[in-house]
Amino acid sequence: MENVKVILWGLGAMGGGIGKMITKKKGVDIVGAIDIGDKLGKSLYDVVPGIERGDREDVIVGTAEEVIKPKAADIVVVCTDSFTSKVFDKLKLVMENKMNVITSAEEMAFPQAQEPELAKKLDEIAKANGVSVLGTGVNPGLIMDLLVILWTGACERVDHIVSRRVNSLSPFGPAVMEEQGIGISVDEFNTRKADGSLAGHVGFAESIGMITKALGWKLDKFEQDMDPIVTDVDRKSPYGFAAAGSVAGIAMKGYGYVDGERKIEMDHPQQIEPEQVGVHTGDYVEIQGIPPVNMSNTPEIEGGIGTMAMILNTIPHVINARPGLQTMIDIPVPRAIMGDMRDLICEEAKIVK
């Protein structure tokens, strides 16, 4: 079988990091790369820091029009946007060229939650072209939804769920820094919160939607709120800076109501360089039910590496999936790929023979 062929669309912190991971794996090749600006026309191995070419064929960064061709790869990894509406046209283009696609766009983890019409269109496009589309990452995609769902598998009854993630934003790129308002004043935070231009964590609606669907609950209402995390010291991460007195992160809370009762609570304070001010990261799942669950993991599953690995490790499952829009409750449980990726691929599902 031919190696699994991958195109990377977006070569920032996430896309470039996934590229580096791919070059360390057996049975998979990068055959295309898409970006904008001064990266165009240059070698992928020159524009992604730390990626090693070895004896691989060179890959020149091009535009979408130059790289996205019918059946050019088995799968395209899109790491450019957070929102379904913004990434929709890219996913559509890939699928209409008969290729599977995975995206790191947070809303795409469960687009039915906030973009049901676009979710329906994506499902139709995927099925019409015999391919699959998935959105995933460490959160949403794993920590605050799939991990919770996995623990409920040992429960006869679930009464109430608390999912808490205390994490560092430091590994993430400029887009996340902007979404989280890193470095802005408290006044600007309040203004942007009021006018809806401050995204904060993108994914509560998706995580709660995924959990309720998996458990067979009918979601009555979803709510979320945010507060600024103000730093009293200067903090600097690779892609963000917060001076003392400015916003270093956001404390997010989300709630899901079933039958008029608050059944799901999400607690997610995230900031750059939390350890600098004595904040310890971690992931926690608390389930009231029969039997109860109380999971604690500290420090957190690191968000940058975790997101890259989730996308890498779901590549075979998306290629093998039946055509259509997929979520993390539709494909097999992800696991680290330590052998040859080709061993996980159904030959009839492969696009590049």
Please render the helix and strand layout as text.
Blueprint: E1 4-9, H1 13-22, E2 28-34, H2 44-47, E3 61-62, H3 64-67, E4 75-78, H4 84-96, E5 100-103, H5 116-129, E6 132-135, H6 146-152, E7 157-168, H7 174-180, H8 186-195, H9 204-215, E8 219-230, E9 235-237, E10 240-242, E11 247-258, E12 261-271, E13 282-290, E14 293-297, H10 303-320, E15 324-326
Helix pairs in contact: 1-10, 4-5, 6-9
Task: Write up what this structure looks like.
- This protein is α/β, with parallel strands linked by helices.
- The chain is built from ten helices and 15 strands.
- Strands 3-2-1-4-5-6-15 form a seven-stranded parallel sheet, with helices on both faces. It has a six-stranded mixed sheet with strand order 8-11-12-7-13-14. A two-stranded antiparallel ribbon has the order 9-10.
- Strand 9 (235-237) and strand 10 (240-242) form a beta hairpin.
- The radius of gyration is 20 Å and the shape is globular.
- The relative contact order is 0.17.
What is the gist of this entry?
The chain has ten helices and 15 strands.
